[in-house]
Fold these 2 entries.
Entry 1:
Amino acid sequence: MEILLIKDALVVPMTAKEGACKSFQASVGVVGNRIVLVSDEVDVVSSFLDKHPDCRIMDGSGKALLPGLINTHCHAAMTLQRNHADDIPLMAWLNDHIWPFEARQTKEDIALGMTLGMAEMLLGGVTSFVDMYFEEDHCVEVVDRMGMRAVLGCSYFDATIDEVLQSAERAVKAAEGKERIRISIAPHAPYTVSEENLQRGKRFAEEHGLDYMVHAAETQDELNYVADKYATTPVRLLDRLGVLDQRTILAHCVWVDQEEMALMRERGVTVSHNAQSNMKISSGVAPIAEMLREGVCVTLATDGSSSNNDLDMWEEMRSAALLQKVTTMDPLKLPAYEVLKMATVNGARAMGHEGELGVIREGALADLILIDLEKPHLQPIHDPVADLVYCGKASDVDTVIVDGRVVVENRQIKGLDLKALYRQVADSVHRILKIQKKDL
Amino acid sequence: MEILLIKDALVVPMTAKEGACKSFQASVGVVGNRIVLVSDEVDVVSSFLDKHPDCRIMDGSGKALLPGLINTHCHAAMTLQRNHADDIPLMAWLNDHIWPFEARQTKEDIALGMTLGMAEMLLGGVTSFVDMYFEEDHCVEVVDRMGMRAVLGCSYFDATIDEVLQSAERAVKAAEGKERIRISIAPHAPYTVSEENLQRGKRFAEEHGLDYMVHAAETQDELNYVADKYATTPVRLLDRLGVLDQRTILAHCVWVDQEEMALMRERGVTVSHNAQSNMKISSGVAPIAEMLREGVCVTLATDGSSSNNDLDMWEEMRSAALLQKVTTMDPLKLPAYEVLKMATVNGARAMGHEGELGVIREGALADLILIDLEKPHLQPIHDPVADLVYCGKASDVDTVIVDGRVVVENRQIKGLDLKALYRQVADSVHRILKIQKKDL
């Protein structure tokens, strides 16, 4: 059990219920996986040191201490397909590139892609992520080894529901006793999974005490499809099927109306906003500012690297804020504190830790990141939150602590040989593309 | 005179006239301020080494070599006001924060802010910038010292034209013999400078052989003002005044119609697109993809740190591309190569070096940047240009060469003590805000 004292950092606590809360210079103590001390009083800090004379001391001066960022929707293994096919029409992208690639990758390739994705996330200050992909049972071990907090969503289409629910059972077993890892059931979308199978996944989730997630209302095509087939909208359809509740994450929600927002608030659904992905593949602009005003729990996410093309939550914060401002023509929309809250406080609900994750207060889970403020693009510091949200970058993250364990220090991921990982990734990609070419 | 050989880098030459050009492994030789060699042939590289046995060799393996990025519109000194006032209405921002701050800063403060801005730009791979601010004559020396290439735009309102044109004369003298630095005349905007003074600045520019730049068609308010006062649009007004030609940069051009695009192309005007600034202060979305299709020379820029809030051209490339895709609902718009061209090839025109800057070919000016590709967010490398544009970050820039001189190496700016600079900046800001408080 590690005991840590982070001394004299600029703490951004994210504990305000309404409005923005002030950041302040303080020291933060961690025992096991919990924050046990947040104080700027010399006496209090001294008595912590007296009590824990062997604790590890980290210097926080010149640094900001934030809750770890929470990425509530990604397909981490798809980093193998980063920049594999860009700037082409959606159906050509899927038919000619993404799907043939996926058909030829092995479980080992997927675990490798996920490792690369996690390396990127950790170095960018992401401590928790919600994943959605295939072979998640095979990934429990690599997620555990990397030390991240994760919800692994077992994704299915109609044709694959049987095998995926079996894989989900194996994943649940593999995750037993691993407190940082939860398993979730993840039907692909209302336009690719039947009503029956959307419900069957939910029943399975309830029986096993699991979360549930689904892509919803992402594109106008989906809207048209659901209107034609079910004479309703994606969110209303999901509600009619009884799958919307506090354990459900809806990814995207670009095309939702006022009444659906009220519905999502009532059901306690978590929305995952993917600003850059929605922009890049021209899905549209989700009405995030409105959803937040309506009381919907909106979180922030990167989506997969094949459509984004990275897993960078700093860019996602900035893009989300700027996109709301320009599309509503109101520079007051989605201010810096609000968007940082989406990436921390709100994200905690998606992780099943509402109130005890994404904040820095005594008793909360110790997922923390130290940001080096001594960079030209972060100086001078007029307003720390605006500084971090509008100017902070993944590369400013110096130290990452997950569940009380130091996983990144001085921008090095402990126990991971990155150069070896790049070689393995290159080999995998080379092999996959070779098969693909031969077969086409 | 420095002689350099960058060995075995992944060269992204940006030399294609139409479509995208391939990147390739090659070595690049620099003598004085020019690229004299671009070759992947062992014999050719050997003979360069025989001819220049004392040349400095840089290892380009695992790195991409790009033309330095060109930021065609910024107010570099405004980095002092970074995050000074965000998420508030425009007029409160100007009246209560920006203008009182500016009224109290000295020439020394401005030079300091510009130094910080240049430090940020250099570390982000920006080798050239076009500035627009006050006291530019006082900044010639610091720009020269930092080793950057710059066009310094002396900015005026009606009330300040006399003193600014005098300052411009001093700036021209100060820049004599400094080939990297050009002086430009920069009336603020059609809604803040009279017709007479817009023309007077142009005449002055012509008499002195200088460039000319002006904010134009940035907001709907400006459109309304110009419609009320002149019964026309900003771009048409400027054309009527005879100030549009190949030596004119129009910053923003958010609100322009098809006919104005044709006009801009005919006049040979350079447009500076500021995606993130336009988003953050809710100016609107400039029809960049359309302008490019119409043959307008569109370049890329950050605007000032008080509205952006940084000077990061990598984010600007990404934001420009993504914003066009989502607002046109067409994922094919502004592909990666096109946007990299805006930031390099097209930007060269704004610097007065069309065709010999922003490209890597023998004979071109040696403004070059080396990007470290061995980062998780840049792996695997399926398509180098998409990789750089969609995933590359300022912090991936390892080495920066301007005009043949190595100014940044291993992410260190030569001869600049950053910590001392941060302290000076903090002191300046502290002093300025104290005066401000007392006087309000």
Entry 2:
Amino acid sequence: MAQKPSIPKGTRDFGPVETVRRNFIFDTIKKVFHRYGYQPIETPAMENLSTLLGKYGEEGDKLLFRVLNSGDFMAGYPAASEVPDPANLLPFISEKGLRYDLTVPFARFVVQNRNDITFPFKRYQIQPVWRADRPQKGRYREFFQCDADVIGSDSLLNEAELVMLVDEVFSALGINIVVKINNRKILAGIASYIGYPESLIDITIAIDKLDKIGLDAVNQELMLKGIPADAVSKLQPVLNMQGDSVAKIQNLRQIIGNNETGNTGLDEINTLFGFLEQMKPTMPYELDLTLARGLNYYTGAIFEVKALDVQMGSICGGGRYDDLTGVFGMPGVSGVGISFGADRIYDVMAEKQLFPETTAGSTFVLFLNFGADEVAYCIPSIALVRKAGINAELYPDADKLKKQFKYADQKLIPYVVIAGETEISAKVFTVRNMKSGSQQNVPVHEIVEFLQDIAEQTE
Amino acid sequence: MAQKPSIPKGTRDFGPVETVRRNFIFDTIKKVFHRYGYQPIETPAMENLSTLLGKYGEEGDKLLFRVLNSGDFMAGYPAASEVPDPANLLPFISEKGLRYDLTVPFARFVVQNRNDITFPFKRYQIQPVWRADRPQKGRYREFFQCDADVIGSDSLLNEAELVMLVDEVFSALGINIVVKINNRKILAGIASYIGYPESLIDITIAIDKLDKIGLDAVNQELMLKGIPADAVSKLQPVLNMQGDSVAKIQNLRQIIGNNETGNTGLDEINTLFGFLEQMKPTMPYELDLTLARGLNYYTGAIFEVKALDVQMGSICGGGRYDDLTGVFGMPGVSGVGISFGADRIYDVMAEKQLFPETTAGSTFVLFLNFGADEVAYCIPSIALVRKAGINAELYPDADKLKKQFKYADQKLIPYVVIAGETEISAKVFTVRNMKSGSQQNVPVHEIVEFLQDIAEQTE
């Protein structure tokens, strides 16, 4: 009967330590979302395939996890002769899929609930998504996304407030970051200026590789993509541009200032940077033309957040999109959003040892169990300690003390209360600091206050 | 292109109001879990079918949502001639299923991580589960379970502390409850005493119907199940038993006291009630022999929580089980657990209007937007207000005031800050109470303190 249990590849269990730490990240982000007026929604794990298919490109369609119709799943299948060609079978046996991201379900939610929603609609959503990607280090088949979007407002104040929100999240987590900002319209202006507007994506992908492969290789790649040498040479001032964001914007204005789209992009960046100057984020931010994230999707601002002092890709990113809900029959809804990469943030915090030693979720004090009488002596105090907001445990069995202390050790419980015969006759508790090993007698009626005091000091 | 979007039947979207309220319930429960030393874990939504199949009975197997193998899902299929018999096809095209409850994944987790776990292991888990049940009012295909279990300890202190935990959760939520307690060993003792130990389940199912169908119908049903009249008549003192829990226990001791199992059950109940007398829960608790919940599963204590003053089934339940992990090759692990029914708790709280009007997640103040200069005037104060821990929004567009006020109204934002030309020249803000309509001028440098004061008063 016995099976050797395992979990599907690419999925993970999270034990207590990891879950507490992950919740610390999510709770911090949620608190800041609330601070900026974002409200949570939740959508089902399963969506109709008609909602999901065709939204993520051909590759995305392949990576959807499809759920078999329940009951007699072959019931809808028309003719035995057509089996077993999967292409024939699939539409008949599966009508639902697991959500692939939070954006498409959000768009579907907005369209479905358009009459009940107050616009501008600021929502956040923290839920798992599933992708049948080949599992590898840092890439999972189930992972959480953590998105905030505001839709139904074109104001660049939204972009500026999102940068502030990002700034506040990472300040609270203790991660030093730089916020990189770009604008698709500037990139479009550049592509237009060199005479190859249709090559926007190729150009930005090439620019994106500048840091990794160097200028020569980028130029070569551009020519391989069919952009002639004279156009590539027109691009050189952009690729070679130095200086801070303000200088770059001025430079670009001279280079692509005649292009309407490019100019609009520069205006937008200018306005955004103007707001940020007033809002004063604590972390650095900069214009980064090599930022080409999600270009087939974003239409205005593009954000990316990199952790400083750590080798790690982007830990947060987002941008403005012009038509979130059009595919579901509700055109003209513009929005801007940001997505936090929980797994990478976790890795950065683990590497830099940024997780707090104790969190709101940990047990602060363990009452040892010496038997029925001693337990009876402890019970009223445990109730009062808990009532005072302190997380407390009573060890359930009168096990050997060594085992009970080991329990406290392994659960990282900082204080242990001992109540044996001696303590009972003296009407005290012995409180042991598990780290230092020091012990102290505390009268029964003072135990709550005593623990409260040290709990406050540890905070 | 446009599709009319919808979600799979039996699933739900949760909008902002519902999500905030659901989170209020989950956060309250989590806080109490932490207070009693339970630590969170999370397991993947998908489990291997080998983990899930055969754990929920034949009916349960049918209700599993199965996930199609990704990629070429027909690749493993052996011979075209055997298609399309679903019984043949299924094992080849699907190896994973969505989790059906949290108990089996927990058991799998414990066995897989046995060497890293400190026993007794107190864990909680709040995650969605999926069942392909026929959807109906109050029954969904995706719903959250909210479980706490302690395993690796036989002490009845665990049962007592779980009752206290339940008491504290419902006190915090403001729901009046009664905790009904039974013990399978008592029921086994009763079945044994009338000479039909093998009819334990039939007898308890019949007893369970006592309230609904009355004594005569119960007796009839017992006889229909093959229990002869003299055995049924031996059962009458049990069915007719009156009085409080203590009286019932004494009565039962006289009736079934010679039966070893029954006696053990009565001892356990006695010990548990003894602990509870010391621990003093605020809500009532009682022995209820008609409690037959999960009898094919629980081996000792059985709990069920009913809300008072509301027509609603059980909102929480649990019990002790002797062999959680045996099926995965780790025998002899005893545990006791409790599960909160989030959907029903939500319904009780909605019916009794127990949700707080504002929660930690709501926006407290909206700064209106009169244009660029006015926004610039507001920005530094908004930053300070947020830094003071107050949830604040800046309306992103210089829309008509009517629209901005409507936004505050619909989002239930209690205060609005107005800063037009007049306010700027006087270096004040006008703060409007959205409920009363009253307005007040507040100097710019006092706005944080002012809002903090009213925020504290509203708490």
